[in-house]
Amino acid sequence: MIARQITIHDDVASTAHAIAARLITSINDAIAARGVAHVVVTGGSLGIAALVAVAENPAKTSVNWSQVHFWWGDERFVASDSADRNVLQAEPLFAALDELGLDRGTVHAMGASDQYESAEQAAVAYTQLLAQEAPEGSASPVFDVLMLGMGPDSHVASLFPNHTRSDELGAIAVHDSPKPPPHRVSLTMGTINTAREVWLIVAGADKAPALAAASHEINEMAVPASAVRGTQATRWIVDRAASTLL
Q1: Pair 76, 184: CB distance under 8 Å
Q2: Around Cβ 11, how many Cβ atoms within 10 Å?
Q3: N or C terminus: fewer CB in 10 A for the chain?
Q4: Tens-place pLDDT, residues 51-102
Q5: 181 vs 75: CA distance, rounded Å
Q6: What DSSP designation does 178 have?
Q7: Is the distance from CB of 78 to CB of 181 less than 8 angstroms?
Q8: Exposure pattern of 133-159 as b/e (b: 16+ CB <10 Å)?
């Protein structure tokens, strides 16, 4: 297994800007190598701050954004205009990239409750969308970068400890979520771990115990964050407060 690389930054703002700079470079590298980049982004306070930092970074003009596909690790199954939606919170980034050639058709949002009758239907639709963009014989694109936040309970995407697990590939419905709202759609761990690079991005002292637990042993059920890994690199990009128990 490829060893994880841990990078520690002083605070939330510096962590967000470091993530943004690294993401821009990784996208350019992917486009240079393969002509396209597939990136999975995440919500949460740090995840959204990092996307806003991309929008603020002058180097964003170096990217051919028409060749970038954006995917989501998870989404709240609520109405499409709900402020709880990760994709709506990320709108400042997409709006900034519109004038730089972003194709909104490559921003692949997960389905909302006013579009599908159930989270299961939304998950099936996203699984099908992943397959449409996948190489022949694969269930999803080969993600160049897949970013994940982590909760104080060690959950990633909407995979919660001792609650949510699936051996399937693609997206699944999540119900009775320990964190509201109760209904969600999430990529499975198997799909997450097909990415070339997985970045676990974490900030805040309240996350320190879970991050330490994830560093001690791999236990997907009890500590989901411990089980995430990329095929080429696994990066933990964290602030100093979250790293205190490592």
Answers
A1: yes
A2: 11
A3: N
A4: 999 999 999 999 999 999 999 999 999 999 999 999 999 999 999 999 999 9
A5: 10
A6: S
A7: yes
A8: ebeeeebbbebbbbbbbbbebbbbbbb
